[in-house]
Amino acid sequence: MIYDPQQFAVGASWVATAIGAALWLWSWLGEKDAIRKLRFLDCGVVLLFSSILLRIVAQERQMSIWDWAVVFIGPLFIAAALWRLARTAGAPPAGK
């Protein structure tokens, strides 16, 4: 058996997709606290879009219009989710 980094990356991206989908579903169905719900949702979005982008980069066929749409829109969703994660990361200000 020959070690292929591309197959390993694609396999890891499917694992990240499953974890991201689980976090996203937990944020909608299981979490009641608003901030924790938002953080689970954002973590799921980052994992989902980054794993999809990795599979698009690793594919050997030509990119379709949907692939191009995800390549342009995906980083926007990732950046927005990371920004919200950074904004909700710390303790609330002392005055509030």
What order do the helices and strands come in, and which of them pair?
Layout: H1 5-29, H2 34-58, H3 65-87
Structure description:
This protein has 96 residues and is mainly alpha-helical. It has helices at 5-29, 34-58, 65-87. Helix 2 (34-58) packs antiparallel against helix 3 (65-87). The longest helix has 25 residues, at 5-29. It is elongated.
Concise synopsis of the structure shown:
This protein has helices at 5-29, 34-58, 65-87. With 96 residues, the protein is mainly alpha-helical.
Defining traits:
single chain; 96 residues; mainly alpha; 3 helices; 76% helix
Number of strands: 0
Order of helices and strands: HHH
Regions with little confidence, pLDDT below 50 for 5+ residues: none
The radius of gyration over CA amounts to: 16 Å
Shape: elongated
Number of helices: 3
Major β-sheet profile: none
Helix content: over 70%
Mean pLDDT across the residues is: 90
What is the percentage of strand-forming residues?
under 5%
Task: Give the N-terminus to C-terminus distance in angstroms.
Answer: 59 Å
Which structural class do you get from the secondary structure elements? Answer: mainly alpha
